[in-house]
Amino acid sequence: xxxxxxxxxxxxxxxxxxxxxxxxxxxxxxxxxxxxxxxxxxxxxxxxxxxxxxxxxxxxxxxxxxxxxxxxxxxxxxxxxxxxxxxxxxxxxxxxxxxxxxxxxxxxxxxxxxxxxxxxxxxxxxxxxxxxxxxxxxxxxxxxxxxxxxxxxxxxxxxxxxxxxxxxxxxxxxxxxxxxxxxxxxxxxxxxxxxxxxxxxxxxxxxxxxxxxxxxxxxxxxxxxxxxxxxxxxxxxxxxxxxxxxxxxxxxxxxxxxxxxxxxxxxxxxxxxxxxxxxxxxxxxxxxxxxxxxxxxxxxxxxxxxxxxxxxxxxxxxxxxxxxxxxxxxxxxxxxxxxxxxxxxxxxxxxxxxxxxxxxxxxxxxxxxxxxxxxxxxxxxxxxxxxxxxxxxxxxxxxxxxxxxxxxxxxxxxxxxxxxxxxxxxxxxxxxxxxxxxxxxxxxxxxxxxxxxxxxxxxxxxxxxxxxxxxxxxxxxxxxxxxxxxxxxxxxxxxxxxxxxxxxxxxxxxxxxxxxxxxxxxxxxxxx
Length: 528
Description:
Elements: E1 14-20, E2 23-29, E3 38-43, H1 63-66, E4 71-72, E5 81-82, E6 87-90, E7 96-100, H2 115-128, E8 138-144, E9 147-152, H3 158-163, H4 173-179, H5 181-186, E10 194-200, E11 204-209, E12 230-235, H6 239-248, E13 253-254, H7 262-267, E14 271-277, E15 280-286, H8 296-305, H9 308-314, E16 319-321, H10 335-344, H11 349-358, E17 362-363, E18 369-371, E19 374-375, E20 377-383, H12 387-401, E21 406-412, H13 414-423, E22 428-434, H14 443-446, H15 461-468, H16 473-490, E23 493-506, E24 509-510, E25 513-514, E26 520-521, E27 526-527
Parallel strand pairs: 3-12, 3-13, 20-21, 20-22
Antiparallel strand pairs: 1-2, 4-5, 6-7, 7-9, 8-9, 10-11, 11-12, 13-23, 14-23, 15-22, 15-23, 16-23, 17-18, 18-19, 24-27, 25-26
Helix pairs in contact: 8-11, 10-16, 15-16
Protein backbone atom coordinates (compact mmCIF):
# COMPACT_ATOMS: atom_id res chain seq x y z
CA UNK A 1 0.00 0.00 0.00
CA UNK A 2 2.37 2.58 -1.21
CA UNK A 3 0.19 4.94 0.45
CA UNK A 4 -0.44 13.19 1.61
CA UNK A 5 -2.52 18.78 3.97
CA UNK A 6 -2.00 23.78 5.49
CA UNK A 7 -4.17 26.77 5.59
CA UNK A 8 -4.00 30.14 7.39
CA UNK A 9 -4.52 30.22 11.11
CA UNK A 10 -8.27 30.52 11.49
CA UNK A 11 -11.14 28.62 13.02
CA UNK A 12 -13.22 27.06 10.29
CA UNK A 13 -16.27 25.12 11.40
CA UNK A 14 -17.94 23.06 8.74
CA UNK A 15 -20.74 20.64 9.31
CA UNK A 16 -21.68 17.40 7.69
CA UNK A 17 -25.42 16.89 7.79
CA UNK A 18 -26.53 13.28 7.98
CA UNK A 19 -30.23 12.54 7.94
CA UNK A 20 -31.15 9.56 10.04
CA UNK A 21 -34.84 8.91 9.81
CA UNK A 22 -36.40 12.24 10.84
CA UNK A 23 -33.42 13.32 12.89
CA UNK A 24 -30.35 15.33 11.97
CA UNK A 25 -26.86 14.74 13.31
CA UNK A 26 -24.22 17.47 12.95
CA UNK A 27 -20.62 16.27 12.77
CA UNK A 28 -17.82 18.85 12.91
CA UNK A 29 -15.09 18.90 10.31
CA UNK A 30 -11.63 19.64 11.71
CA UNK A 31 -10.48 23.24 11.71
CA UNK A 32 -8.46 24.40 8.75
CA UNK A 33 -4.79 23.55 8.67
CA UNK A 34 -2.89 25.62 11.21
CA UNK A 35 -0.93 27.95 8.92
CA UNK A 36 0.51 28.32 5.46
CA UNK A 37 3.78 26.66 6.49
CA UNK A 38 2.23 23.29 7.34
CA UNK A 39 1.15 20.71 4.79
CA UNK A 40 -1.65 18.41 5.91
CA UNK A 41 -2.41 15.15 4.14
CA UNK A 42 -5.38 12.85 4.64
CA UNK A 43 -4.90 9.12 4.07
CA UNK A 44 -7.39 6.25 4.56
CA UNK A 45 -5.15 3.98 6.63
CA UNK A 46 -2.86 4.15 9.65
CA UNK A 47 0.60 2.56 9.68
CA UNK A 48 1.19 -0.38 11.94
CA UNK A 49 4.88 0.46 12.24
CA UNK A 50 7.08 3.45 11.44
CA UNK A 51 10.37 1.58 11.17
CA UNK A 52 10.47 0.54 7.49
CA UNK A 53 12.59 -2.44 8.42
CA UNK A 54 9.92 -3.83 10.75
CA UNK A 55 6.74 -2.97 8.88
CA UNK A 56 4.75 -5.00 6.37
CA UNK A 57 3.17 -2.01 4.63
CA UNK A 58 4.80 1.31 3.87
CA UNK A 59 2.88 4.50 3.17
CA UNK A 60 4.25 7.00 0.67
CA UNK A 61 3.07 10.00 2.64
CA UNK A 62 4.45 8.65 5.94
CA UNK A 63 7.53 6.46 5.56
CA UNK A 64 8.87 8.25 2.47
CA UNK A 65 8.99 11.50 4.44
CA UNK A 66 11.02 9.93 7.25
CA UNK A 67 13.31 7.77 5.13
CA UNK A 68 14.78 8.74 1.76
CA UNK A 69 14.84 5.80 -0.67
CA UNK A 70 18.30 5.28 -2.20
CA UNK A 71 17.04 5.60 -5.78
CA UNK A 72 14.06 6.41 -7.97
CA UNK A 73 12.83 4.66 -11.09
CA UNK A 74 11.73 7.99 -12.55
CA UNK A 75 8.28 9.24 -13.36
CA UNK A 76 7.65 6.43 -15.86
CA UNK A 77 9.34 3.60 -13.92
CA UNK A 78 11.91 2.98 -16.62
CA UNK A 79 15.12 4.51 -15.20
CA UNK A 80 17.64 4.06 -12.42
CA UNK A 81 18.11 7.49 -10.85
CA UNK A 82 19.68 8.59 -7.57
CA UNK A 83 17.37 9.83 -4.83
CA UNK A 84 18.57 9.49 -1.23
CA UNK A 85 22.02 8.45 -2.50
CA UNK A 86 24.39 10.69 -4.42
CA UNK A 87 24.75 8.11 -7.22
CA UNK A 88 23.36 4.68 -8.06
CA UNK A 89 25.17 2.77 -10.81
CA UNK A 90 24.06 -0.73 -11.82
CA UNK A 91 26.21 -3.01 -13.95
CA UNK A 92 25.00 -3.48 -17.53
CA UNK A 93 24.27 -7.13 -16.77
CA UNK A 94 22.80 -6.26 -13.34
CA UNK A 95 25.44 -8.38 -11.61
CA UNK A 96 26.29 -5.62 -9.11
CA UNK A 97 25.11 -2.20 -7.93
CA UNK A 98 27.28 0.68 -6.74
CA UNK A 99 25.62 3.07 -4.28
CA UNK A 100 27.60 6.22 -3.56
CA UNK A 101 26.80 8.35 -0.51
CA UNK A 102 27.68 11.96 0.16
CA UNK A 103 29.60 11.74 3.47
CA UNK A 104 28.37 15.23 4.44
CA UNK A 105 24.72 14.13 4.43
CA UNK A 106 23.23 13.27 7.80
CA UNK A 107 20.66 11.27 9.69
CA UNK A 108 18.14 13.17 11.78
CA UNK A 109 20.32 12.35 14.81
CA UNK A 110 23.23 14.36 13.36
CA UNK A 111 25.32 11.29 12.54
CA UNK A 112 26.77 11.28 9.06
CA UNK A 113 25.14 9.06 6.44
CA UNK A 114 28.35 7.40 5.31
CA UNK A 115 28.80 4.37 3.09
CA UNK A 116 29.46 2.33 6.23
CA UNK A 117 26.21 3.56 7.75
CA UNK A 118 24.31 2.60 4.61
CA UNK A 119 25.87 -0.88 4.66
CA UNK A 120 24.95 -1.27 8.35
CA UNK A 121 21.37 -0.26 7.58
CA UNK A 122 21.11 -2.84 4.81
CA UNK A 123 22.45 -5.52 7.16
CA UNK A 124 19.76 -4.62 9.71
CA UNK A 125 17.11 -4.70 6.96
CA UNK A 126 18.16 -8.24 6.04
CA UNK A 127 18.11 -9.24 9.71
CA UNK A 128 14.76 -7.73 10.74
CA UNK A 129 12.50 -7.11 7.76
CA UNK A 130 9.56 -9.42 7.01
CA UNK A 131 10.70 -8.92 3.42
CA UNK A 132 14.32 -9.85 4.05
CA UNK A 133 14.05 -12.28 1.13
CA UNK A 134 14.10 -9.25 -1.19
CA UNK A 135 17.86 -9.34 -0.74
CA UNK A 136 18.35 -13.08 -1.17
CA UNK A 137 20.28 -12.43 -4.42
CA UNK A 138 22.92 -10.44 -2.49
CA UNK A 139 26.20 -12.37 -2.48
CA UNK A 140 28.48 -9.82 -0.86
CA UNK A 141 28.66 -6.14 0.02
CA UNK A 142 31.75 -4.10 0.73
CA UNK A 143 32.57 -0.45 1.27
CA UNK A 144 34.98 1.30 -1.07
CA UNK A 145 35.45 4.88 0.11
CA UNK A 146 32.07 6.61 -0.16
CA UNK A 147 30.61 3.76 -2.20
CA UNK A 148 28.89 0.53 -1.19
CA UNK A 149 29.33 -2.20 -3.79
CA UNK A 150 26.49 -4.75 -3.76
CA UNK A 151 27.52 -7.90 -5.61
CA UNK A 152 24.68 -10.20 -6.63
CA UNK A 153 24.73 -13.96 -7.10
CA UNK A 154 22.59 -13.44 -10.19
CA UNK A 155 20.92 -10.50 -11.94
CA UNK A 156 17.90 -9.30 -10.01
CA UNK A 157 15.80 -6.56 -11.63
CA UNK A 158 13.36 -6.66 -8.72
CA UNK A 159 15.97 -5.25 -6.35
CA UNK A 160 15.64 -1.86 -8.05
CA UNK A 161 11.94 -1.82 -7.24
CA UNK A 162 12.78 -2.33 -3.56
CA UNK A 163 15.50 0.33 -3.63
CA UNK A 164 13.07 3.00 -4.83
CA UNK A 165 10.97 2.52 -1.69
CA UNK A 166 11.54 3.46 1.92
CA UNK A 167 11.86 -0.25 2.75
CA UNK A 168 15.49 0.35 1.76
CA UNK A 169 15.72 3.92 3.05
CA UNK A 170 18.71 3.99 5.43
CA UNK A 171 17.97 4.04 9.15
CA UNK A 172 20.31 5.20 11.91
CA UNK A 173 21.37 1.78 13.18
CA UNK A 174 23.31 3.20 16.13
CA UNK A 175 20.20 5.01 17.33
CA UNK A 176 18.09 1.89 16.78
CA UNK A 177 20.45 -0.18 18.91
CA UNK A 178 20.55 2.45 21.64
CA UNK A 179 16.75 2.82 21.73
CA UNK A 180 15.73 -0.78 21.20
CA UNK A 181 13.58 -2.09 18.37
CA UNK A 182 10.20 -1.27 19.95
CA UNK A 183 11.03 2.34 20.82
CA UNK A 184 12.71 2.90 17.46
CA UNK A 185 9.59 1.60 15.74
CA UNK A 186 7.57 4.33 17.47
CA UNK A 187 10.09 7.17 17.12
CA UNK A 188 12.33 6.24 14.19
CA UNK A 189 15.38 8.14 13.00
CA UNK A 190 16.09 8.22 9.29
CA UNK A 191 17.47 10.66 6.74
CA UNK A 192 14.28 11.77 4.98
CA UNK A 193 13.03 15.33 4.53
CA UNK A 194 11.10 15.29 7.83
CA UNK A 195 11.82 14.24 11.40
CA UNK A 196 9.34 12.41 13.57
CA UNK A 197 7.57 14.59 16.14
CA UNK A 198 4.44 12.86 17.48
CA UNK A 199 2.10 9.95 16.73
CA UNK A 200 -1.43 10.25 18.08
CA UNK A 201 -2.96 6.85 17.38
CA UNK A 202 -6.23 6.97 15.52
CA UNK A 203 -5.67 10.62 14.64
CA UNK A 204 -2.42 11.80 13.05
CA UNK A 205 1.37 11.84 12.85
CA UNK A 206 3.25 15.15 13.08
CA UNK A 207 6.69 15.76 11.60
CA UNK A 208 9.03 18.75 11.42
CA UNK A 209 11.33 19.71 8.57
CA UNK A 210 14.86 18.32 8.57
CA UNK A 211 16.79 21.45 7.69
CA UNK A 212 19.96 19.56 6.75
CA UNK A 213 18.15 17.30 4.28
CA UNK A 214 19.69 16.71 0.85
CA UNK A 215 18.93 14.36 -2.02
CA UNK A 216 19.86 13.83 -5.68
CA UNK A 217 16.46 13.49 -7.33
CA UNK A 218 17.15 14.78 -10.87
CA UNK A 219 13.59 15.67 -11.90
CA UNK A 220 12.99 17.87 -8.83
CA UNK A 221 14.18 21.48 -8.74
CA UNK A 222 14.67 21.43 -4.98
CA UNK A 223 17.10 18.87 -3.55
CA UNK A 224 17.49 20.41 -0.12
CA UNK A 225 15.21 21.26 2.81
CA UNK A 226 11.56 21.33 1.76
CA UNK A 227 9.64 24.58 1.37
CA UNK A 228 7.25 24.00 4.28
CA UNK A 229 8.41 23.45 7.85
CA UNK A 230 5.58 21.43 9.40
CA UNK A 231 3.93 18.27 8.10
CA UNK A 232 0.92 16.37 9.39
CA UNK A 233 -0.59 13.11 8.15
CA UNK A 234 -4.17 12.53 9.29
CA UNK A 235 -5.84 9.12 9.30
CA UNK A 236 -9.33 9.49 7.81
CA UNK A 237 -10.71 6.08 6.89
CA UNK A 238 -14.19 7.31 5.92
CA UNK A 239 -14.19 8.25 2.24
CA UNK A 240 -16.89 10.91 2.55
CA UNK A 241 -15.20 12.55 5.54
CA UNK A 242 -11.86 12.66 3.71
CA UNK A 243 -13.48 14.56 0.83
CA UNK A 244 -15.35 16.89 3.21
CA UNK A 245 -12.06 17.72 4.94
CA UNK A 246 -10.46 18.57 1.62
CA UNK A 247 -13.35 20.83 0.64
CA UNK A 248 -13.33 22.55 4.02
CA UNK A 249 -9.57 23.12 4.00
CA UNK A 250 -8.87 20.78 6.92
CA UNK A 251 -6.43 18.92 4.69
CA UNK A 252 -4.51 20.00 1.59
CA UNK A 253 -4.11 16.62 -0.13
CA UNK A 254 -6.06 13.37 0.09
CA UNK A 255 -5.44 9.85 -1.18
CA UNK A 256 -7.96 7.34 -2.48
CA UNK A 257 -10.65 9.73 -3.67
CA UNK A 258 -13.91 7.74 -3.76
CA UNK A 259 -15.16 7.31 -7.30
CA UNK A 260 -18.69 8.43 -6.54
CA UNK A 261 -17.35 11.83 -5.43
CA UNK A 262 -15.06 12.43 -8.41
CA UNK A 263 -17.61 14.58 -10.31
CA UNK A 264 -18.04 16.82 -7.27
CA UNK A 265 -14.30 17.42 -6.89
CA UNK A 266 -13.63 17.75 -10.61
CA UNK A 267 -16.16 20.57 -10.78
CA UNK A 268 -14.72 22.40 -7.76
CA UNK A 269 -12.43 25.23 -8.97
CA UNK A 270 -10.26 25.06 -5.84
CA UNK A 271 -9.55 21.31 -6.22
CA UNK A 272 -7.32 19.44 -8.66
CA UNK A 273 -7.75 15.69 -9.19
CA UNK A 274 -4.87 13.50 -10.42
CA UNK A 275 -5.65 10.11 -11.99
CA UNK A 276 -3.17 7.26 -12.26
CA UNK A 277 -3.26 3.55 -13.04
CA UNK A 278 -2.14 1.49 -10.08
CA UNK A 279 0.37 -1.36 -10.43
CA UNK A 280 -2.37 -3.75 -9.41
CA UNK A 281 -3.92 -6.92 -10.74
CA UNK A 282 -7.29 -7.89 -9.27
CA UNK A 283 -8.16 -11.52 -9.88
CA UNK A 284 -10.32 -14.42 -8.83
CA UNK A 285 -8.37 -16.96 -6.80
CA UNK A 286 -10.07 -20.36 -7.15
CA UNK A 287 -9.25 -23.20 -4.75
CA UNK A 288 -8.87 -26.19 -7.05
CA UNK A 289 -8.60 -28.63 -4.14
CA UNK A 290 -12.24 -28.30 -3.07
CA UNK A 291 -15.50 -29.19 -4.80
CA UNK A 292 -16.78 -28.10 -7.26
CA UNK A 293 -13.54 -26.44 -8.39
CA UNK A 294 -11.55 -29.65 -8.50
CA UNK A 295 -13.38 -29.96 -11.83
CA UNK A 296 -11.57 -27.98 -14.53
CA UNK A 297 -14.86 -27.41 -16.38
CA UNK A 298 -16.30 -25.47 -13.43
CA UNK A 299 -13.21 -23.26 -13.15
CA UNK A 300 -13.27 -22.64 -16.90
CA UNK A 301 -17.01 -21.86 -16.86
CA UNK A 302 -16.46 -19.33 -14.10
CA UNK A 303 -13.65 -17.69 -16.09
CA UNK A 304 -15.76 -17.34 -19.24
CA UNK A 305 -18.80 -16.09 -17.33
CA UNK A 306 -17.07 -12.89 -16.16
CA UNK A 307 -17.79 -9.83 -18.32
CA UNK A 308 -14.99 -7.30 -17.76
CA UNK A 309 -16.60 -4.66 -19.99
CA UNK A 310 -19.76 -4.75 -17.90
CA UNK A 311 -17.63 -4.51 -14.77
CA UNK A 312 -15.82 -1.51 -16.21
CA UNK A 313 -19.11 0.26 -16.94
CA UNK A 314 -20.65 -0.73 -13.61
CA UNK A 315 -17.61 0.61 -11.77
CA UNK A 316 -17.75 3.97 -13.59
CA UNK A 317 -14.66 3.17 -15.66
CA UNK A 318 -12.29 3.24 -12.69
CA UNK A 319 -10.74 -0.05 -13.77
CA UNK A 320 -8.89 -1.21 -16.86
CA UNK A 321 -9.73 -4.81 -17.85
CA UNK A 322 -6.75 -7.17 -17.97
CA UNK A 323 -6.23 -10.79 -18.97
CA UNK A 324 -2.52 -11.02 -18.13
CA UNK A 325 -1.30 -11.52 -14.57
CA UNK A 326 1.05 -8.56 -15.17
CA UNK A 327 -0.97 -5.34 -15.31
CA UNK A 328 -0.17 -2.50 -17.74
CA UNK A 329 1.25 -0.27 -14.97
CA UNK A 330 3.60 -3.02 -13.76
CA UNK A 331 7.11 -3.72 -14.98
CA UNK A 332 7.40 -6.21 -17.83
CA UNK A 333 3.82 -6.08 -19.00
CA UNK A 334 3.67 -7.85 -22.37
CA UNK A 335 1.10 -6.18 -24.59
CA UNK A 336 1.07 -8.89 -27.34
CA UNK A 337 0.18 -11.51 -24.73
CA UNK A 338 -2.48 -9.23 -23.28
CA UNK A 339 -4.08 -8.83 -26.70
CA UNK A 340 -3.95 -12.55 -27.46
CA UNK A 341 -5.46 -13.57 -24.12
CA UNK A 342 -8.24 -10.99 -24.44
CA UNK A 343 -9.26 -12.55 -27.73
CA UNK A 344 -9.00 -16.16 -26.56
CA UNK A 345 -10.64 -15.80 -23.14
CA UNK A 346 -13.20 -13.01 -23.45
CA UNK A 347 -16.69 -13.10 -21.94
CA UNK A 348 -18.49 -16.13 -23.37
CA UNK A 349 -21.50 -17.28 -21.30
CA UNK A 350 -22.56 -19.75 -24.00
CA UNK A 351 -19.23 -21.54 -23.74
CA UNK A 352 -19.49 -21.46 -19.93
CA UNK A 353 -22.88 -23.19 -20.07
CA UNK A 354 -21.63 -25.70 -22.62
CA UNK A 355 -18.65 -26.63 -20.44
CA UNK A 356 -20.89 -27.23 -17.44
CA UNK A 357 -23.38 -29.33 -19.40
CA UNK A 358 -20.59 -31.46 -20.89
CA UNK A 359 -19.35 -32.09 -17.33
CA UNK A 360 -22.79 -33.36 -16.30
CA UNK A 361 -24.38 -30.25 -14.79
CA UNK A 362 -28.04 -29.60 -15.49
CA UNK A 363 -30.24 -26.55 -14.96
CA UNK A 364 -32.87 -26.93 -12.20
CA UNK A 365 -36.28 -25.26 -12.01
CA UNK A 366 -34.74 -22.20 -10.33
CA UNK A 367 -32.19 -21.70 -13.12
CA UNK A 368 -29.19 -23.00 -11.15
CA UNK A 369 -26.89 -25.80 -12.27
CA UNK A 370 -27.09 -29.05 -10.31
CA UNK A 371 -25.24 -32.36 -10.39
CA UNK A 372 -26.00 -35.51 -8.41
CA UNK A 373 -28.64 -33.53 -6.54
CA UNK A 374 -26.20 -30.81 -5.45
CA UNK A 375 -26.48 -27.21 -6.58
CA UNK A 376 -23.41 -25.43 -8.01
CA UNK A 377 -22.96 -23.01 -5.14
CA UNK A 378 -19.98 -21.44 -3.43
CA UNK A 379 -18.79 -18.51 -1.33
CA UNK A 380 -16.81 -15.60 -2.79
CA UNK A 381 -14.73 -13.70 -0.22
CA UNK A 382 -14.39 -9.95 -0.77
CA UNK A 383 -12.14 -7.42 0.98
CA UNK A 384 -14.44 -5.27 3.16
CA UNK A 385 -11.92 -2.40 3.11
CA UNK A 386 -11.52 -2.21 -0.67
CA UNK A 387 -14.30 -0.07 -2.20
CA UNK A 388 -13.82 -1.18 -5.81
CA UNK A 389 -13.89 -4.86 -4.89
CA UNK A 390 -16.94 -4.36 -2.70
CA UNK A 391 -18.80 -2.66 -5.55
CA UNK A 392 -17.71 -5.25 -8.09
CA UNK A 393 -18.86 -8.23 -6.03
CA UNK A 394 -22.60 -7.94 -6.74
CA UNK A 395 -21.93 -7.34 -10.45
CA UNK A 396 -19.93 -10.56 -10.73
CA UNK A 397 -22.45 -12.38 -8.59
CA UNK A 398 -25.15 -11.52 -11.15
CA UNK A 399 -22.91 -12.53 -14.06
CA UNK A 400 -22.20 -15.93 -12.54
CA UNK A 401 -25.86 -16.50 -11.77
CA UNK A 402 -26.55 -16.10 -15.50
CA UNK A 403 -24.71 -19.39 -16.10
CA UNK A 404 -26.37 -21.13 -13.14
CA UNK A 405 -23.84 -20.51 -10.34
CA UNK A 406 -25.27 -19.70 -6.90
CA UNK A 407 -22.75 -17.29 -5.36
CA UNK A 408 -22.78 -16.06 -1.75
CA UNK A 409 -20.78 -12.87 -1.22
CA UNK A 410 -19.02 -12.50 2.13
CA UNK A 411 -17.02 -9.42 3.14
CA UNK A 412 -14.04 -9.90 5.46
CA UNK A 413 -10.99 -7.89 6.51
CA UNK A 414 -8.01 -8.44 4.24
CA UNK A 415 -5.91 -9.94 7.03
CA UNK A 416 -8.56 -12.60 7.64
CA UNK A 417 -8.80 -13.36 3.91
CA UNK A 418 -5.02 -13.76 3.71
CA UNK A 419 -5.08 -16.19 6.64
CA UNK A 420 -7.85 -18.26 5.08
CA UNK A 421 -6.04 -18.30 1.75
CA UNK A 422 -2.80 -19.45 3.33
CA UNK A 423 -4.69 -22.25 5.12
CA UNK A 424 -6.69 -23.19 2.03
CA UNK A 425 -9.96 -22.55 3.85
CA UNK A 426 -11.80 -20.84 0.99
CA UNK A 427 -13.57 -21.51 -2.30
CA UNK A 428 -13.18 -18.29 -4.33
CA UNK A 429 -11.51 -15.03 -3.34
CA UNK A 430 -11.75 -11.72 -5.17
CA UNK A 431 -8.13 -10.86 -4.56
CA UNK A 432 -5.46 -8.40 -5.68
CA UNK A 433 -1.72 -7.84 -5.70
CA UNK A 434 -0.13 -4.38 -5.79
CA UNK A 435 3.58 -4.19 -6.57
CA UNK A 436 5.58 -2.83 -9.47
CA UNK A 437 7.63 -5.99 -9.99
CA UNK A 438 5.63 -9.15 -10.85
CA UNK A 439 8.50 -11.23 -9.49
CA UNK A 440 7.86 -9.72 -6.08
CA UNK A 441 4.31 -11.05 -5.87
CA UNK A 442 3.41 -14.02 -8.06
CA UNK A 443 5.86 -16.63 -6.72
CA UNK A 444 3.63 -16.77 -3.63
CA UNK A 445 0.83 -18.20 -5.80
CA UNK A 446 2.57 -19.90 -8.68
CA UNK A 447 5.67 -21.67 -7.38
CA UNK A 448 6.11 -24.68 -5.16
CA UNK A 449 6.48 -23.63 -1.55
CA UNK A 450 4.64 -20.33 -1.98
CA UNK A 451 2.26 -19.47 0.86
CA UNK A 452 -0.75 -19.54 -1.46
CA UNK A 453 0.52 -21.97 -4.09
CA UNK A 454 -1.03 -25.25 -2.83
CA UNK A 455 -4.47 -23.96 -3.75
CA UNK A 456 -3.53 -22.93 -7.30
CA UNK A 457 -3.05 -25.68 -9.93
CA UNK A 458 -0.55 -23.66 -11.98
CA UNK A 459 3.12 -24.27 -11.26
CA UNK A 460 5.47 -21.94 -13.07
CA UNK A 461 8.67 -22.30 -11.04
CA UNK A 462 11.08 -22.52 -13.96
CA UNK A 463 9.55 -19.66 -15.93
CA UNK A 464 9.37 -17.36 -12.90
CA UNK A 465 12.94 -18.18 -11.94
CA UNK A 466 14.05 -17.37 -15.48
CA UNK A 467 12.13 -14.07 -15.48
CA UNK A 468 13.62 -13.10 -12.13
CA UNK A 469 17.20 -13.11 -13.43
CA UNK A 470 16.58 -11.84 -16.96
CA UNK A 471 18.30 -8.44 -17.34
CA UNK A 472 16.67 -7.61 -20.67
CA UNK A 473 13.31 -5.90 -20.22
CA UNK A 474 11.82 -7.09 -23.49
CA UNK A 475 12.77 -10.71 -22.95
CA UNK A 476 11.61 -10.53 -19.34
CA UNK A 477 8.20 -9.28 -20.51
CA UNK A 478 7.96 -12.19 -22.95
CA UNK A 479 8.65 -14.70 -20.17
CA UNK A 480 5.96 -13.17 -17.96
CA UNK A 481 3.64 -13.43 -20.95
CA UNK A 482 4.37 -17.16 -21.03
CA UNK A 483 3.53 -17.38 -17.32
CA UNK A 484 0.18 -15.69 -18.02
CA UNK A 485 -0.57 -18.20 -20.77
CA UNK A 486 0.20 -21.06 -18.40
CA UNK A 487 -2.13 -19.59 -15.77
CA UNK A 488 -4.96 -19.53 -18.30
CA UNK A 489 -4.36 -23.19 -19.15
CA UNK A 490 -5.33 -24.18 -15.59
CA UNK A 491 -7.78 -21.36 -14.82
CA UNK A 492 -7.10 -21.44 -11.11
CA UNK A 493 -6.43 -17.71 -11.26
CA UNK A 494 -8.60 -15.43 -13.40
CA UNK A 495 -7.07 -11.95 -13.97
CA UNK A 496 -9.72 -9.23 -14.04
CA UNK A 497 -8.51 -5.62 -13.95
CA UNK A 498 -6.08 -2.95 -12.81
CA UNK A 499 -7.41 -0.08 -10.69
CA UNK A 500 -7.36 3.60 -11.45
CA UNK A 501 -6.64 5.64 -8.34
CA UNK A 502 -7.24 9.32 -7.63
CA UNK A 503 -5.33 11.83 -5.57
CA UNK A 504 -6.72 15.33 -5.01
CA UNK A 505 -5.26 18.55 -3.66
CA UNK A 506 -6.38 22.12 -3.02
CA UNK A 507 -5.19 24.97 -5.22
CA UNK A 508 -3.00 26.33 -2.42
CA UNK A 509 -0.61 23.45 -3.19
CA UNK A 510 1.74 23.89 -6.14
CA UNK A 511 4.76 21.93 -7.35
CA UNK A 512 3.44 18.45 -6.53
CA UNK A 513 5.10 15.80 -8.72
CA UNK A 514 3.31 12.46 -9.19
CA UNK A 515 4.72 9.51 -11.13
CA UNK A 516 2.58 7.60 -13.61
CA UNK A 517 1.82 4.99 -10.95
CA UNK A 518 0.97 7.51 -8.24
CA UNK A 519 4.19 7.93 -6.26
CA UNK A 520 4.19 11.51 -4.89
CA UNK A 521 7.30 13.68 -4.65
CA UNK A 522 6.99 16.78 -2.43
CA UNK A 523 10.42 18.36 -3.07
CA UNK A 524 9.01 21.33 -4.99
CA UNK A 525 5.71 21.73 -3.13
CA UNK A 526 4.90 25.27 -2.05
CA UNK A 527 1.90 26.44 -0.02
CA UNK A 528 0.20 29.69 -0.90
